[in-house]
Amino acid sequence: MSDEMIQRVLKVIATSKRIPLETVTIDSQFEALGIDSMDAVEILFALEGEFDISIPDEEVRTVRSVRDMCAGVERLLAAKDAGAPAGQ
Amino acid sequence: MRRVAITGAGAISALGRNTSEFAAALREGRSGLAPIQSIDASQLRFQNGGEVKDYSHQPYFDDRRADFMDRFAQFAVIAAREAVEDAHVEWTPELRETSAIITGSCVGGQSTEDLGFVEIYKFARNRVHPLTIPKTMANAGASHISMEFGITGPAFTISTACSSAGHAIGQAYQMVATGASDLAISGGSEAPFSMGILKAWEAMRVVSQETCRPFSKDRRGMILGEGAAMFVLEPLEAAVARGVHIHAEIVGFGMSADACHITQPSMEGAARAMRAALRSAGLAPEQIGYINAHGTATLANDLTETAAIRNVFGAHADRLAISSTKSMHGHTLGAAAALECLATAIALRDGVLPPTANYSEPDPECDLDVIPNVARHQQVEYALSNSFAFGGLNAVLALRKVT
């Protein structure tokens, strides 16, 4: 994962949850950041805008940490670059 | 306090155009969920819904009257007509003046508003149709029912998201019980199938991309539905004196607020509402035989509701039959509690408990007897109908079989 992408994800999380950027790291668990399922849905929405991707609903049930989220974004970006319909 | 009877019922939903079609579908465990037809769903992440199939206003309203009514208001009047006819109401000037109308709706006529906003934002037409406001307002259902029957008594609408009709029927029950009204028409109606509303639901990621499987381990969320159910409520004594058929008696009503989170359900809030309903009815938990669950098939609701039922009923939870009929008519939002109160009344009346359809896999976190897939012949004396709304506003009705 590129540092640039990770930094963008961290910023989206901090902005969406309205918490200081320095509190969010690649190793943060959602629970520790106080991110509940509605917060997670909002963050996914913001990530879709940030990266111009479409995130499937399934991700909401499985993503529990910032690292999961970064990995998911990377996967969807790769699929987008490969020309596959994003989020399918 | 007077005892309160349901003497009339009307319904229009994905399960048919009247209560007998609704009852037949529940008995057969037949789901009305199908690919959405009324709008192009190709730009949505979900394709299925519980629509009133091939609906047109024409058998119900002349064109000019329909011009004034959003689909949700049409459904309200259609269901109210059936309920009033079913109850053989004999209108007198006094009865028209004292009868109450209390309806529930979550989105009201927002489908009409949505189309109006397309004119503004998409086509830059800079004006909307002059009937946009009267068609959009959530009280339009109650207003059109009042005009339909010339009812001039108290009439209003309650909007508490997915509990709307539960709060409405509960309020109507209390007004008849206390003597404030000698008759009430109450229920809920909803018609949320427009692109803007569906996109908002899609964004919440709570709608299943396949079907609605309440309490099943492989559940993936709700399926939205539309329709209405309306009831005629009157004092039990008056109903007996008139010699009319009684579907069921409403014996209690409980409410609570989670005071917790705007979308996450709370076990404590749900349990408090069920306890309040039991207390209001003067019932011990062991007297309840069936619960029509809120059962949306979201991950959070079904396990929270299971925990709440265990919390309230203790060991008796394992002897209770529960089911979610949303698996068949969909989640009709502000009409849900009305269709489900009807399903509960029919279950008591007919001695047939409706199943949880589309159930495929037990979930250890939803380990109650959910009547999987096949209706059950069982006589039950008392039942609850649960409604737990976004916003944490809960409404539970307690019903009794009338023999």
Describe this structure in words.
The complex is a heterodimer of chains A (88) and B (403). Chain A is built from five helices and no strands. Chain A is mainly α and 88 residues long. Chain A has one domain: ACP-like (Non-ribosomal Peptide Synthetase Peptidyl Carrier Protein, Chain A). Chain A is globular and about 35 Å long. The mean pLDDT of chain A is 92. Chain B is α/β, with parallel strands linked by helices and 403 residues long. Chain B folds into two domains: 239 residues, 3-Layer(aba) Sandwich (Peroxisomal Thiolase, Chain A, domain 1); 149 residues, Thiolase/Chalcone synthase (Peroxisomal Thiolase, Chain A, domain 1), CATH 3.40.47.10. In chain B, strand 13 and strand 14 form a beta hairpin. Chain B is globular, with a radius of gyration of 20 Å.
- Beta percentage of chain A is under 5%
| CATH fold annotation of chain A | Non-ribosomal Peptide Synthetase Peptidyl Carrier Protein, Chain A
**Proportion of residues in helical segments of chain A:** 55-70%
Shape category of chain A: globular
Q: Give Rg of chain B in angstroms.
A: 20 Å
The ordered string of helix (H) and strand (E) elements of chain A is: HHHHH
List the secondary-structure elements of chain B in sequence, H or E: EHEEHHHEHHHEHEHEHEHEHEHHEEEE
N- to C-terminal distance of chain A: 21 Å
N- and C-termini, Cα separation of chain B: 21 Å
Provide a count of the helices of chain A.
5
The interface involving the most residues is between: A-B, 10 and 13 residues
Tell me the count of domains of chain B: 2
